[in-house]
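Notebook entry, structure prediction.
Reason for the run: the old model in the group folder had no record of what sequence produced it. Starting over properly, with the input documented here first.
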Amino acid sequence: MQATSCLRNFLFSLVPLFLGVVSTGFAEAKVVKHELVVTQKVMNVSGKIDVDFALVVNGSIPAPTLEFTEGDDVEIKVINKIPTGEEVSIHWHGILLPPEEDGVAYVNTPPIFKDQSRTFKFKLRQHGTYWYHSHTMLQEQKGVFGAFIVHPKKKEIAYDRDLVAVLSDWSDEDGDQILKNLRKDGDYYLYKKDSMRSYWGALKAKSLGTYLANELDRMGGMDLSDVGYDAFLINGKKESQLASAKPGDKIRIRVINAGASSYFYVSLGGLPMQVIAADGTDIEPVQAKEILVGMAETYDILFTVPDDKNYELRATVQDVTGYVSGWIGNVAGQKVVAETKPLPDYYAPMDHGGGHGSGHGDHSQHGAEAVDQSKMDHATMDHSKIGNDKTTESVLPSLSVDLLKAKEKTAFSTNKTVHDVKLVLGGDMERYIWHINGKASHEERNIIIKEGDVVRFTFQNDTMMHHPMHLHGHFFRVVNSYGDFSPWKHTVDVPPHGTRTIEFFANEPGEWMLHCHNLFHMKTGMARVVKYSTFTPSAAVAGAQHHDPHLHEHIYFDGELNVSTASAALDLRLSRTWDTLELDMQSGEYEAFAKGTADLVYRRWRSNFFNFLLGTQQNFAVTEDRSRVYAGFGYLLPMLIESDLAVDNKGGVELALEKKFQWTKYVYSDLEAEIYYLRDEPIETDLEANLFFASRWDWAGGLVFHEDSIEAAARYRF
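New structure, fully documented this time:
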């Protein structure tokens, strides 16, 4: 009896424990909380100088890596402690969530003002490699970004540990100043990057014919990167030991490109890499010698350490102006370096066939057509040195989205309504404006879609730059040669003069940003908001939308001062996307300033090549009044000759022509010709040329040649 009672008491004592286990099994979701404090800090990131504009999250660049498990309830408190009063935002890139938690200030989430906070709450419906970053002004360039890792409930791919590699670009110039510089001249950073094209360079490269043909087509050459950076980083460092590992260790390397405007070629110790996921979604494993990773893209690599050596994970910026190294393996072992990328051929002919892929010239070279060639290349490889599990697969020379295959079918049901939208990506590198379908984001905000439709966006890139296009709040299938097995992504590279087609099911009602993830392209107009037709934002969001900076025109200022031994000239310009206001003043002669003139000209741009102009000229001659008002147009002629044709209120006609000749990397000439015709009067001509030396963008000096004189001169651009 006593034994029975003891047994009964023992069994009853197990009930709470049993119920706890059962309840845990049925309620797997747990609340995971984080706190992120954004503030400003004096830092030396590049190893060159201290800067005072760096923005840090919990004291560091990059921000802390946040880790979760699929199904978790997330609560992240973001606190704004930026002392200057600057507002802040955080976007959870690639995460499926309610629109108000997306984090784009003034679009679907209110901003976080100084000394205020916001707690983001959402449930994780996915797993994979993602990241987070500011969506306010240029804060991403200044340091507000970090990794966001979601582990699956059940681990389906065997590996020993994770390694997060966050790639970024860093400038010792404030991001706001970078944008101002680019608006002065899209080629502002060519001197810093040592990538100035010239006639002499083309001649040495045996490509003078190509160079001249590009000028005839009014093209300046391929643009691989806009900004001249001072450092490229992995996890905030220019070089570091990412992981100490021994032979046989299997490591999942989670590569995240958090660069503001840099594509990276990623390679690993000269070995083929087994790529198992893209943008957080699993793909059919594929082997590649390198991956071209666009801004905001993520790729997961499965790496089994083959021996007792130390292997270099190298990320080389696309224009090959620098790279960053992280090491994996035995710290004391022999270093196995990755292959060095050759410098790009700045004089290569440009293909306009609209192919896919990621090369500099023939953009189809790494497309689906490259598979057979890669098999032939692979036949000569030493398989004994491959650091992954599958040594019999073909190894691709370079991986792009064309060669990604989903693990399961991604095609949508054929009975759904398909809504087709063509999006032409355009821009003007010289004036540094970027737009979609000929309109910047402030001119046309929305793309309206209907819930339940399959939406198909076709991106047509009419520019000579890559554009990584990102859609918030959704995953889309990138239609490639694998058809029904086209891969899921949230960001897709659209190559120069190429096209991409993406499709997504409209089942996430809200307002979601669609934009180029080159930060400076987005900020100058290459963005839209994808708005569901029946969606109504909350009162708080609707109120914030009225102040959306994406909808405001921004005005930029630049100027040029020319001083010679006999005269001086000052040119000032205010510019917006399609408007410029120019004030050009010339002294004539120092001893006779009354011979000077001042022109005030307004231009309305209709395309990269054409503008209407309206101006007035005040001539300060004492003996006669030569002041006039004129109207006409400007047009960029073949051979990159700038022309203005105008008629004035006196019946006169003026033709002005100007061309720059870049003779060598540092030596150039400007040739200017003005012809003025007024009936019954002699034709007036004014010819001027210079020969200047410039080793940087702002300063130049040399000689100026007039029809009857030669002067020493200096030029300062600001």
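Summary: The longest strand covers residues 31-43.
The old model has been moved to the deprecated folder.
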